[in-house]
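Entry 12.
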Amino acid sequence: MLMIVSDEIENKQIAKQYKELLQISYQRLSGEDKKLIRSAFDTAVHAHRNQRRKTGEPYIHHPINVAKIVAHEIGLDATSIASALLHDVLEDTDFKPVELEKLFGKGVTKIVEGLTKISKLSKESDISLQAENFKKLLLTLNDDIRVIIIKIADRLHNMQTLDAMPEDKQLKISSETLYIYAPLAHRIGLYNIKTELEDLSFKYTEPIRFKSIKNKIEESKEEQSSYIKSFSKITKNALAEESLEYTIKGRSKSIFSINRKMIRQNIPFEKVFDKFAIRVVYRSTHRNEKFLAWKIYSIVTDHFVPNPTRLRDWITSPKSNGYEALHITVMGPDNKWVEVQIRSERMNEIAEKGYAAHYKYKHGGQKDIGIESWLDKLQEVLENNAENPVDFVENFKLNLYAKEIFVFTPTGDIKSLPKGATALDFAFNIHTEIGMKTRGARVNGKLVPLSRTLKSGEHIEIITSENIKPTANWLDFVKTSRAKSKIKSSLNEEKKRIADDGKESLRRKLKHLKIKLNDKTTAYLLRYFNLNSSLDLFYRVGLGTIDNKQLKAFYNEYNGTFLNFFKKRITRKNLDVKKIDKEEITERFDTLVFGKEKETLKHSLASCCNPIPGDPVFGYITVNDGIKVHKKECSNALSLQSNFAYRIISSKWIDSSSNEYKALLKLSGIDNMGIVSDVTQLISNEMNVNIDKISFDSDDGIFTGLISVSVKNQTILNRLVSKLLRLKGIDKVLRE
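Predicted 3D structure (tokens):
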């Protein structure tokens, strides 16, 4: 039952909240700033005057609270605070952008427009509306990062007041938050907000488990407080002797992260030993920060034995979101491992405020690090914004939570990459053109495969070649969103080139069958071959997966006795012309392959999760039933992967029409000068053929050669064999 409150009381509450907003601002507000915020406040109050939230309170409470988060917890400027107050005005009221611009100028209007959701979206079944919203949200990073930050603040307040929503809405909003908003907050450096978003989401997605862990944390608070006191007691005197100004406090691990650790390690709450960390925050000038951090490190390790494998120096090499600190794990009192975080006041502020503090403490001439360098890299990911929204968001998310490694270029420059990145990721990190032309890589002077996972401290050199171009296999070698995006873009261009050739080839082949290639014929062909667009059709003709034999079969049905029935069947389906002309080559996931070699093996689909084509999957080798294929998010996945890792085999769905197959060709003939060069050049110039291995032997004027190639299909292989036989000196080409 909602409590009825008089207008006078409500107005007093609103006025009180406004005063608090001005008082708690992280930034120093000038007279002009206060004037801008007041104007935004009055406009928002008027625009939302007749609206109420699900809680029953006036709607204006929401934008004020979002502005408070923006002002205090994130610490943004007056323009951001004003934009936060106005963030729902365009979406939920009759206000128009032109009116907003007249009152507040282009800056505020641009941010508020960026915050406004999409009202009319594509209703195609293969497009997620929420992904489309996320895509638009992420693309606003091109314009102003404040859009994202205010959106995160908006989501935080929505999560804080989620109790008023129905259960289905709670679950939906919480899942969205875990999916994109918490990782974004993490990547921008808003750790406190990230943690709160995760815990609040966990509260609604798994309420029973959340409550259980929360209660256990509450029960152990006294133990935690006692532990911090005993740690401080031992180090206090030593730190005081050095005349250091500092504070020591404990930081509890979040409920969400404790749960994640319990699941990942398959342990109960009691076995999670690092449920909290000890933080030493010291006062220092910018010049002495690093020196004092290592001094405190030395003092701590004089009293407690450190774990040398758990030292993390993010002062020398800050994280890409600007985070700086020394993290050490030591054997603390009572012989318990405890993480000690050493930060200056500046570092601590940046860790909590992120973006705003980064600029507050930025010194003249200081090299751009952190948030700015990340945004520069992000720009390149956002360039390729035409892809499917779901793929776009997934690619973007790849690096949001990734841990970092630091590697060196041949000239000694340091590069930050996500943990798990490969030599090919490094090539694309240097420059897109280098990535596209990568032939090989040297790590610490030794040649390594492109799929080699890099480690911190390694020196990497990239070998390039003008004759190299990306292949579909490269997508299996890379971890970073930038590399994936660029490879996909290149492959799509290649596919469209093949499709152009395929269209002309199809036109000639149909002309031979006395059929004219037009929209009507294309519609019949799409229905016959069960394809989604004309580009799909032309691409597969260009590849050779739709050959003359199949086209003749189509012709027979097209011209057969059942012509009228066939045409009616097509007409009934009402083929969409827009779909036919769609400039996207889609994949038809129809085949499962296993292992590094991508072999097709006998298997069955697990009944517990019923995977369908396209689902992320893995294979489990059973005792009696061969390979069982499970979804990666299957309820049994964690148990199988942790207890029977030796029986797990990697698996993925592929489009069999564009899959690569290996073939071994044996060549023989009369040896002559340049025969090896002729063969390799021919294969290099041949579309959709890649050389895996090659060897040649000569004996008294006769040569033999073995070539392992990867091809898309039999048609391409036959074409290659035919061209090889036309080379001078080659007598035979046999498939082994």
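Annotation: Residues 591-654 form one domain. The chain has a mean pLDDT of 80.
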